[in-house]
Write a structure and sequence with these properties.
Structural class of chain B: mainly alpha
Distance between the termini of chain A: 37 Å
Number of strands of chain B: 0
Number of strands of chain A: 21
CATH topology of chain B: MetI-like fold
Number of domains of chain A: 2
Number of helices of chain B: 11
Helix content of chain B: over 70%
Order of helices and strands of chain B: HHHHHHHHHHH
Strand content of chain A: 35-45%
CATH class of the largest domain in chain A: Alpha Beta
Number of domains of chain B: 1
Oligomer: heterodimer
CATH architecture of the largest domain in chain A: 3-Layer(aba) Sandwich
Shape of chain B: globular
Number of helices of chain A: 8
CATH topology of the largest domain in chain A: Rossmann fold
Order of helices and strands of chain A: EEEHEEEHHHEHEHEEHHEEEEEEEEEEE
CATH superfamily of chain B: MetI-like
Radius of gyration of chain A: 25 Å
Largest interface: A-B, 28 and 20 residues
Helix content of chain A: 10-25%
Strand order of the largest sheet of chain A: 6-7-8-3-9-10
CATH superfamily of the largest domain in chain A: P-loop containing nucleotide triphosphate hydrolases
Largest sheet of chain B: none
Chain lengths: 365, 277
Amino acid sequence: MTEQSIIDIRGVHKSFGRVEALKGIDLTIREGEFFSLLGPSGCGKTTLLRMIAGFDEPTSGVVMIGGQSMAGIPANKRPTNMVFQSYAIFPHLSVSDNVGYGLAKKKMSRAEKAEEVNNALAMVDLEGYGERSAHELSGGQRQRVALARALVMKPRVVLLDEPLSALDKKLREQMQVELRALQQSVGITFILVTHDQEEALIMSDRIAVLFEGEIAQLDSPQRLYRQPINQRVASFIGVMNFLEATAEASSGGDLSLTIPALGSVSMHAAQVPEGTDVAAIAQIGMRPEMLTILFDETDKAACESTGEVVGTSYYGDMTYYSVKLSKAEQPVTVSMRNTAGRSIVPPGTAVRLGWGADSIVLFPS
Amino acid sequence: MRFMRIFSRNWLLIYASLYVFFLYAPVVLLPLFAFNASSIIAFPLTGFTTEWFSVLLETKALHRAVQNSLVVGLITAVISTILGTCAARAMIRFGFPFKRGIVGFIMLPLVLPEIIVAVALLVLLMQLGFPLSIWSVIGGHVLICVPFSVAILSSAFQGLDKNLEEASMDLGETGWGTFWRIIFPLILPGVISSLLITFTISLDEFIIAFFLTGTEVTLPVYIWSQLRFPAKLPSVMALGTILLAMSVLLLILGEWFRRRSAKRQGLDASSTRGFMQ
């Protein structure tokens, strides 16, 4: 991945009548990366994507592609191609006519066009499907045709508007992996719009989380999951336990945390994010997998607390326990891998909880 | 209770039979008397003849009227379908000020008594000094045909996914190119339905044609003028028979075409609306 930017979005606002869909977006997307716009429905992510594609114009601000302002340049003159949520496969055309649709305007011989179409179909594993008509395809195949139709144009950026949301879970998971692999092999910038946090984590190099027309956080999947910037991002990406806490700076930049529900712990300076306002810290967050139930007498952890199981959810590979801590009213969620020979602990069982300072996320009030 | 049910079911059967009888009996009588040897339209039938059809072939004025009607019908169908396509697209795809009012205005001739439209147009054309010809008839017919065209085509546009147009533009096609390569093929069944319906409406329209026609009469006006002569009645019957056969043929053709294009689009033909709505 190069560091060169392909898309620069500067101060983009968009209003639909009185509704402000985007409230000042500044964003740089790098050449060749898989970038995701993640957010709940109505957060403006699709509007932003449509603005890059050229279907909507910003109310103010500028969208630049390859260093060139796209103001007033319509969709058919932009180096972007889109895969629509509905796929928008032309129902009256065959698969190859769909894929070759955009080539009609290009100066190429008939044979060259046919070859391009076949290459694109091969790229999405649809060789030999060219003569089929659009309505003979399954949902997954339609999705691939839509992708081939975009890729055949050799765009600088491929835009994906919730492309997998219409597929069933199994197929979706398979396509997530395939799409990621395809993006890496062609090296084109992909911008994905999704409301599925798992999908964004699996596929992306970087993710921008959007809430109400503003970017809440822009980070790599790992940083987004490990260091969410606020409680809202934290609870949108996966599950997070929030607990009241106070902090005090101690020697060498270490942090001394007091968490009434769990106890006290010292956090090493290296684990404290830069620029943390120690005095403002009022809450900590812990992911369910960072808490452990110490089933055996001999199990040990850096820090320990006690509690009682109040509920369980069985997921096959994992079990999510709801554990009421001895020193708090609110239960915490703990996820445990279901290893061989371990049975599910029923509600009412008293358990020891293990945790550590390295898994704690700090939040100001 | 049981008695009541049988009773009401029988009544329903009688009602349905009478309904169908009154609807189709006149249609059956038409060919019956067209081939009847007697010039008096009455039972019993006297014998088989094709004489009335030969009379038709020799009547020059009739040929002229048929030709006029075809010209008026074709031009009316094309103009009102083009106008209907534009109006339906604007109606379905865009929002604009006074949209409801404008749409209502376009659809108004649907409920306006034709006699009022005819008289109003006649007065207007007279005031403007516009001579009466088949063109004034075409103008009147377009006015009453556009609402039908809009109704048929707006359902065709309704079924069109907006993303298809965007996808086409996204793939580098122009607006005009998108219309011909994507929109037009997909609304084609609707366009054909509209052409057939508006042609049919124009073909058998009498009141407006009667008021606005000059010396060049259309077929319904010609038929009406012939009804004054009892001797001409059997040949009018023959003419009716030909028109009946032609409209049935047209209907079958239209439906066949619609089913074919629906199938090509992967739709179930019976689930989509035909031109009979």
